[in-house]
Specification:
TPR repeat, disordered N terminus, Rossmann fold, six-stranded mixed β-sheet, about 650 residues, Serine Threonine Protein Phosphatase 5, Tetratricopeptide repeat, elongated, three-stranded antiparallel β-sheet, alpha/beta
Length: about 650
């Protein structure tokens, strides 16, 4: 991108002290404090342009509209008098809008953003020179405008952090180094724990062959992060002292964009965040943040979002982003770190193009633990806007489900999910206990009720329960209690649909819940998978195969992926392709030897494929784990019990493989 050139210094400065100057650098006096803040407000607006009615609501909220509009006219008139020559006017207006004239040339923060997009090293140096302090750092603002100032300050701090890291990697001349150091120092004056600024200074020391100074800078960073968050610096900071620092940042060569199964929509994965909590403090906080951001972006409907069940496979794994993009078929990845100190939380979020490993956007988010759900929404909105600016924030906010007030209950549910995924009797019992604990803490927590119902359903259909009738009764009770509480929660709706499908056998009713889950969140891999099974149990095998395939595309590394393979094997079986069904089942069991319940399916498929010896060996292994199961047990509890065509074939295979009648 070509460098953007500006002939003069900006007239309006909002970084540090709010000031206004003529081109000859003569300071101008604002007519009123409100006039000064109105100019700053315009400077922070998109295209430095606002509607008159919005300015009236913001600056004269206690006045009737005619009086507010009159006050706005007077303020604009006073601002115009600062520059009598029309050619030097700062502000333009018509009957609907007010704007700053030539904002990129006039306003420091707009020029800052414009130059930052250039990519030219000289432009980045000019950008660094502009940032002399936080947005309106020394300017008093009314309480009702404090949120606006804070949000803009955070936005520009984040961009300054990107600039300082780019400059520190550039291996530039003395001017580059000097301005990089000055910008890093400015950022640290504002926030002693800003690791981007610390990393920049460490790189400069190392590039200048000053390892002792680099170590001292790291020690200063460590002291600051410990004081602020009770945590060590990020791994990327510590790594600078053990790895050579590149002197020139080279652009990665482009590769073909990863192809997603839904190429019409942007594809992305939200990778597990690094939780920089002190040793031993693992309360699933970072997992919860990822869960909610994934759900919010998925429900917006404008993206192809990889399911969290697959993304979690990359936790604590050092896999290059381009490899992740290839493996999952996604173009974008979201990474992040979470750190906490007392009631405070700080998140660093990065959006990366996996095809080039280029960072598209990053930002820091600060808040309190009790405000974390609002922070998650804000992050989802900004990620969405960075990828596709047409997505409205209201769509994400509208789609979110209400979180529980009790954070411990939420953590219990997060802790229970991996156990639910494991698909073993012991882990299912552990998940059930965690969901029950969540309900003790938050009795109206609909998602916990729904997942508990699913646990009881699995106890029934996998023959893990000593009293299937009681488990079925408990399942139905939790479904009934959860239903009015989960109408906007696709995960809970999918769980209830699964429970009804498995334990109650009412596939039509199950599909109602699953269809609503997919209407809210078309990327919900669980809902697609359970829809596949509901279709399958109803004898709708084509629809089942399509749903299983869609679920696999959305969550290719899903811990429950083997369940989809068995679903596809069942479709083969129902169509009379017994050998294909047996081969797929055998391969899936070999990859997941702990799922002994699956030998029942394999024994049936192999028997009808004519592989009697293999079928009887499979049944022997199955009966060692489930000695009480018989033909009668399957007639009563198998989820296909209401599908005569399937059950006739299935029972025939069970008998051939040696399962007794009673």
């Amino acid at each position: 991108m070509e460098r953007v050139n500006f002939r003069d210094e900006p007239s309006l400065r909002v970084f540090g002290d709010l000031s206004l100057n003529e081109s000859a650098r003569k300071a101008l006096r604002f007519p009123t404090r409100k006039a000064a803040l109105l100019l700053a407000y315009l400077a922070s607006a998109p295209d430095a342009r606002c509607r008159r009615d919005k300015l009236c609501r913001v600056f004269w909220p206690d006045r009737a509209e005619p009086q507010a509009r009159n006050s706005l006219r007077q303020t604009l008139s006073a601002l115009r008098k600062l520059t009598p020559e029309p050619s030097h006017a700062f502000v333009g207006a018509d009957t609907e809008h007010v704007w700053i004239v030539d904002p990129a040339a006039t306003v420091d923060c707009i020029r800052f953003e414009t130059l930052a997009k250039s990519g030219n090293m000289d432009a980045l140096v000019d950008t660094a020179k502009l940032y002399v302090g936080r947005f309106l750092d020394s300017t008093p603002v009314p309480e009702d405008l404090e949120g606006w100032r804070r949000d803009n300050a955070a936005r520009f701090v984040s961009l300054a952090g990107e600039i300082v890291e780019k400059l520190s990697r550039s291996g530039g001349d003395e001017d580059v180094v000097a301005n990089c150091r000055r910008l890093a120092t400015t950022l640290l004056e504002d926030d002693e724990a800003d690791e981007r600024a610390h990393r920049a200074l460490i790189r400069l020391h190392l590039a200048g062959s000053r390892p002792n100074e680099a170590r001292r800078q790291y020690d200063a960073c460590r002291a600051a992060t410990r004081a602020a968050f009770g945590a060590e610096p990020e791994p990327a900071t510590a790594a600078l002292l053990s790895e050579p620092v590149p002197t020139v940042e080279k652009a990665a060569g482009p590769r073909s964009p990863a192809s997603s199964p839904d190429a019409a929509r942007p594809s992305l994965v939200i990778l597990p965040f690094d939780d920089l909590a002190p040793e031993g403090e693992n309360d699933f906080f970072a997992d919860g943040v990822v869960e909610e951001i994934t759900a919010a972006l998925s429900r917006a409907g404008d993206f192809f979002v990889i399911a969290r069940q697959t993304a979690i496979a990359f936790k604590d794994q050092l896999v290059p982003l381009d490899e992740i993009g290839d493996r999952l078929g996604v173009r974008y990845a979201v990474e992040g770190t979470v750190r906490r100190g007392g009631s405070l939380v700080r998140l660093y979020i990065h959006l990366v193009d996996t095809s080039t490993s280029r960072q598209i956007w990053s930002e820091r988010f600060d808040g309190r633990i009790e405000d974390v759900f609002e922070l998650q929404d804000e992050i989802a909105i900004k990620v969405a806007a960075a990828i596709s600016p047409t997505i409205r924030s209201s769509e994400i906010l509208l789609a979110r489900s209400k979180p529980p007030e009790n954070r411990q209950a939420y953590d219990c549910v997060l802790a229970g999910l991996p156990r639910l995924w494991s698909h073993t009797k012991a882990d299912n019992a552990a998940a059930r206990g965690l969901f029950e604990r969540a309900l003790e803490l938050a009795p109206d927590y609909g998602r916990a009720m729904a997942l508990l119902a699913w646990c009881h359903a699995q106890d029934v259909v996998y023959y893990w329960s000593d009293d299937p009738d009681r488990s079925r009764t408990l399942c139905s009770r939790h479904v009934r209690e959860a239903t009015p509480l989960i109408q906007n929660d696709p995960t809970a709706l999918a769980a209830v649909g699964a429970a009804i499908s498995q334990a109650e056998g009412d596939q039509e009713r199950a599909r109602v819940f699953l269809a609503r889950a997919l209407a809210i969140d078309p990327n919900n891999a669980w809902a697609w998978a359970r829809s596949g099974w509901a279709h399958f149990f109803s004898g709708r095998y084509e629809e089942a195969g399509e749903a299983f395939s869609r679920a696999k595309a959305l969550s290719p590394l899903d811990p429950l992926g083997f369940n989809l393979e068995f679903g596809l094997a069942g479709v083969f079986f129902a169509h009379g392709n017994y050998r294909e069904a047996a081969a797929l089942s055998r391969a899936t069991i070999d990859a997941h030897p702990g799922i002994t319940w699956a030998y029942r399916q394999y024994a049936t498929y192999a028997a009808l494929a004519g592989e009697i010896d293999e079928a009887r060996e499979a049944m022997r292994i199955y009966r060692e784990a489930y000695p009480e199961v018989t033909i009668a047990t399957n007639l009563k509890n198998h989820p296909q019990r209401n599908n005569p065509h399937y059950m006739e074939l299935f029972l025939k295979g069970l008998r051939l493989s040696g399962l007794p009648e009673e």
